[in-house]
């Protein structure tokens, strides 16, 4: 099949049995259909599956709950929840430590010592990209202790661009929207401090 040929692609994905999302990657082998890309080596596939299973209740939980309870919640009109944010940060920090010491403990640039990104790299890196909406100092405080993780994020981005930036475009737009009020608040705070300083001298 020629993916670049619209007719071929339309015929291949016409049936939802091939891929319910009607997208590639997808493969049909006899009576077996697979709609995602996994390594052909069963042992590596099992290891990648173990990373994906770990990810849901660790990295995803920590990153999601921290962002929601510090930035996104208040932006949507919900009150800050410092206790929930603190608990989420503990999970996130522990997850980042395990990510650095275990999953990135190899000679390759990607998870499990891989030479190219796998579905596990793509799934996990997306959780950390959402930290972009945090205040820059807060994001650096959380990520900077984990040099391998920071390098891995950049390597995954470089290996998958321009698609990486296209997929996360809406997130980057949210980041810019959230940063604008912060910069205005910072400027207002600086101006207020300056005025107070002048008044105190009088």
UniProtKB/TrEMBL annotation:
<dbReference type="Pfam" id="PF13410">
    <property type="entry name" value="GST_C_2"/>
</dbReference>
<protein>
    <recommendedName>
        <fullName>glutathione transferase</fullName>
        <ecNumber>2.5.1.18</ecNumber>
    </recommendedName>
</protein>
<keyword id="KW-0216">Detoxification</keyword>
<comment type="similarity">
    <text>Belongs to the GST superfamily. Theta family.</text>
</comment>
<feature type="region of interest" description="Disordered">
    <location>
        <begin position="182"/>
        <end position="202"/>
    </location>
</feature>
<dbReference type="InterPro" id="IPR043377">
    <property type="entry name" value="GSTT1/2/3"/>
</dbReference>
<dbReference type="InterPro" id="IPR036282">
    <property type="entry name" value="Glutathione-S-Trfase_C_sf"/>
</dbReference>
<dbReference type="GO" id="GO:0009407">
    <property type="term" value="P:toxin catabolic process"/>
</dbReference>
<dbReference type="InterPro" id="IPR010987">
    <property type="entry name" value="Glutathione-S-Trfase_C-like"/>
</dbReference>
<dbReference type="InterPro" id="IPR040077">
    <property type="entry name" value="GST_C_Theta"/>
</dbReference>
<keyword id="KW-0808">Transferase</keyword>
<feature type="domain" description="GST C-terminal">
    <location>
        <begin position="41"/>
        <end position="178"/>
    </location>
</feature>
<dbReference type="GO" id="GO:0004364">
    <property type="term" value="F:glutathione transferase activity"/>
</dbReference>
